[in-house]
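User: tokens in, sequence out, please.
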């Protein structure tokens, strides 16, 4: 391989913080829309949870939009950082499954846990690689939130599956 090829490979592994914020905003919007559309189709046992998930994704979407509009980070969002190992799994979550007209509780909970896990991992890795400042702080906050959501979903899943709710 030539030196030019090595340089191109290194560049392919990089992305700007602006691109990361755009993908993350799309991730949160797709989740919000998915959960909002799912609300009338899920059982009453977990409807409250799907409503909470839609509202939480909206809050995350709002955080990304507010951050993207801040003038004090205009230079920071142009910075390039290394793509994280979780980048492709996170991006894959933009493709939403078709859970049918009457999805069962277990399927909905499994999907939500997987999505929270992908977000938790991705935001955690981004918090490690983003430069100090408001973007890193946001990724730390979101990684913590997604971890908490995943733990809550796991408890609900366990209670639902092992109590004969599914």
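Assistant: Sequence out:
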């Amino acid at each position: 391989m030539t030196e030019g090829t090595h340089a191109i490979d290194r560049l392919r592994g990089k992305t700007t913080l602006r691109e990361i914020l755009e993908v993350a905003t799309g991730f949160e919007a797709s989740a919000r829309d998915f959960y909002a559309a799912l609300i009338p189709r899920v059982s009453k046992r977990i409807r409250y949870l799907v409503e909470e998930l839609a509202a939480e994704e909206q809050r995350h979407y709002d955080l990304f939009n507010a951050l993207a509009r801040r003038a004090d980070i205009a230079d920071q969002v142009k910075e390039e950082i290394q793509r994280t190992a979780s980048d492709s799994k996170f991006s894959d979550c933009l493709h939403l499954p078709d859970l049918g007209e009457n999805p069962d509780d277990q399927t909905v909970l499994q999907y939500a846990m997987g999505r929270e896990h992908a977000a938790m991992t991705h935001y955690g890795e981004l918090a490690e690689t983003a430069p100090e400042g408001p973007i890193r702080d946001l990724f730390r906050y979101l990684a913590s939130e997604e971890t908490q959501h995943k733990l809550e979903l796991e408890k609900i899943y366990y209670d639902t599956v092992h109590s004969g709710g599914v």
